[in-house]
């Protein structure tokens, strides 16, 4: 745990875990302030989990969430009031500690000299020079002067961000690039389905971010607050400014756990789990491997979500385990899908229906999870069938695997880059922004009508790299994206239906049909998922080796 003292009575630091509250108690802290909104990261515990652990240690905990980089004056006022009200000493945290330090700095404006604010924050390891500029400019962050400037800036260090940086470096070795991302750890999220099935260990899916940033690329460890595309500027946490000549935006997607009433309070307990969070996937396996009878519910929210097949993958692998354990006949499997079809590309549905019958699962379409009572083991679903009035039902469960609703990150949704639905607005072929010609986007946060998968980002990265390089050299776009996405549907341990498709549901197989027929369950596809895709991800995709991912060239006819 990283605890940094700013002054007597107040320390700040990065995200803590529930188990850290005992140490905070031992160190004498009497109160905790959470300045990080729930659902920012896939390894982040919700505040209700922190509050419960704090209460057990006799520590007071309050929730004052602030969106990354969007610290308002009223937030600082609320923070100052909390410090006065709470018993000290107080520990405040967010993702990195920057927001908490920013709140403290703004709260001190007018009470202390600006050099003293800067010095105390600096002693704790936080550069608040941007905040001081904001204070000196009447609450506005000026972008005319930058703290740093690069020919190419990439927002997001996930699969898309690192892959496109590596692909750019492979084309222009001397190109100066910066990646902006606050996370210390990078996750291979496609592996979490197999963690939840007892096939992978969770630590196999995690690497340090510093080990993956391509050589020669500068890592700015910060969160983005806002975009000023008219000034070619990005504003960071702490009110720092980074200027760019070309910008690539790929921050991923936000898991909106809070949209389901009662969910955050019970995640990881009472039989409530999700493979969409790093620390919960092992709990999925614990529940599945120990279950002998009862009702198991698997949910899927309205689209868009990343890896649309993941909710049913969890169902199939769980059903396979119960079948192998000889207990399937005593388990009632219910698949609650807010949509109206099992899978969006019809060619793969017959094989999936075979497995639905094999596990005797009940398909419930137009059922959207809206509330959950963990201790009572009850879930509430809203049913929105076409042509009928909306109604609600309540059902019990012994285990429930929840796929959370998903939205674009907050700083994207409120930015000039977003369309009306909140996603980065791009041309679906070139992935260039429709309004700002020096901005591109890829991955889960943009609005092209493709499946949001890591395989999609693997294909998108070379397209963006080709087109950015062409732009640097004064040319028009030269590469196009065909909407490719892949969803290895793990229908049983040892077999996969390998769905590969592009825009409009067109099939896009990577292998000859005689070798691998993706519409049928295959052991070869399982081998690909379990043994080949992880090293391809770590050693090829994130290093600029574009195996089976060469971009499609734009021709005169296009």
UniProtKB/TrEMBL annotation:
The entry's keywords: Transferase
UniProt xrefs under InterPro entries: BLH_phosphatase-like (IPR005939), FAD/NAD-bd_sf (IPR036188), FAD/NAD-binding_dom (IPR023753), Prot-tyrosine_phosphatase-like (IPR029021), Sulphide_quinone_reductase (IPR015904)
Organism: Paracoccus aurantius
Keyword Transferase: yes
PANTHER family: SULFIDE:QUINONE OXIDOREDUCTASE, SULFIDE:QUINONE OXIDOREDUCTASE, MITOCHONDRIAL
Molecular function in Gene Ontology: transferase activity
Protein name: TIGR01244 family sulfur transferase
UniProt domain Beta-lactamase hydrolase-like protein phosphatase-like: residue ranges: 2-110
A Pfam family this chain is assigned to: BLH_phosphatase
FAD/NAD(P)-binding domain boundaries: 151-267
Statement: the UniProt record of this protein carries the keyword Transferase: yes
């Amino acid at each position: 745990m990283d605890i940094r003292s700013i002054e007597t009575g107040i320390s700040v630091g990065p995200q803590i875990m529930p188990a850290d509250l005992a140490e905070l108690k031992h160190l004498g802290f009497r109160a905790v302030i959470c300045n990080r909104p729930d659902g920012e990261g896939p390894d982040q515990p919700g505040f209700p989990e922190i509050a419960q652990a704090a209460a057990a240690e006799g520590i007071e905990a309050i929730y004052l969430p602030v969106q990354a980089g969007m610290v308002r004056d009223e937030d600082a006022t609320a923070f100052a009031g909390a410090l006065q009200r709470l018993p000290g000493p107080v520990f405040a945290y967010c993702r990195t500690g920057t927001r908490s330090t920013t709140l403290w700095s703004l709260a001190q404006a007018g009470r202390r000299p600006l050099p003293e604010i800067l010095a105390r924050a600096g002693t704790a390891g936080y550069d608040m020079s941007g905040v001081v500029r904001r204070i000196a400019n009447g609450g506005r962050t000026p972008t005319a002067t930058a703290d740093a400037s690069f020919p190419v800036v990439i927002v997001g260090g996930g699969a898309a961000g690192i892959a496109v940086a590596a692909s750019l470096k492979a084309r222009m070795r001397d190109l100066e690039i910066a990646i902006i991302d606050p996370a210390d750890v990078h996750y291979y999220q496609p592996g979490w389905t197999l963690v939840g099935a007892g096939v992978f260990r969770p630590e196999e899916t995690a690497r340090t971010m510093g080990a993956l940033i391509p050589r020669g690329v500068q890592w700015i460890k910060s969160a983005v607050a806002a975009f000023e595309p008219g000034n070619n500027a990005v504003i960071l946490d702490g009110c720092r400014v980074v200027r760019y000549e070309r910008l690539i935006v790929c921050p991923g997607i936000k898991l909106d756990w809070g949209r389901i009433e009662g969910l955050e309070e019970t995640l990881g307990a009472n039989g409530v789990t999700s493979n969409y969070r790093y620390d919960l996937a092992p709990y999925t396996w614990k529940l599945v491997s120990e279950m002998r009878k009862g009702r198991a519910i698997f949910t899927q929210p309205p689209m868009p979500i990343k890896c649309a097949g993941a909710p049913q993958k969890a169902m199939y692998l769980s059903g396979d385990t119960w079948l192998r354990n000889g207990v399937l006949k005593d388990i009632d499997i219910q698949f609650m899908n807010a949509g109206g079809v099992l899978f969006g590309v019809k060619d793969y549905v017959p094989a999936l229906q075979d497995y639905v019958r094999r596990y005797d699962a009940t398909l419930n379409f137009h059922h959207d999870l809206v509330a959950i009572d963990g201790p009572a083991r009850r879930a509430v679903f809203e049913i929105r069938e076409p042509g009928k009035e909306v109604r609600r039902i309540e059902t019990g469960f012994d285990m429930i695997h929840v796929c959370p609703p998903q939205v674009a990150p907050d700083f994207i949704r409120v930015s000039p880059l977003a369309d009306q639905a909140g996603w980065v607005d791009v041309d679906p072929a070139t992935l260039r922004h429709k309004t700002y010609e020096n901005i591109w986007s890829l991955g889960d946060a943009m609005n092209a009508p493709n499946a949001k998968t890591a395989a999609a980002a693997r294909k998108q990265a070379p397209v963006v790299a080709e087109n950015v390089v062409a732009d640097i050299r004064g040319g028009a776009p030269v590469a196009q994206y065909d909407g490719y996405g892949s969803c290895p549907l793990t229908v049983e341990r040892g077999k996969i239906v390998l769905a590969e498709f592009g825009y409009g549901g067109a099939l896009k197989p990577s292998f000859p049909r005689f070798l691998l027929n993706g519409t049928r369950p295959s052991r070869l596809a399982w081998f690909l998922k379990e043994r080949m895709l992880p090293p391809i991800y770590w050693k090829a995709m994130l290093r600029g080796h574009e195996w089976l991912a060469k971009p499609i060239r734009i021709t005169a006819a296009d």
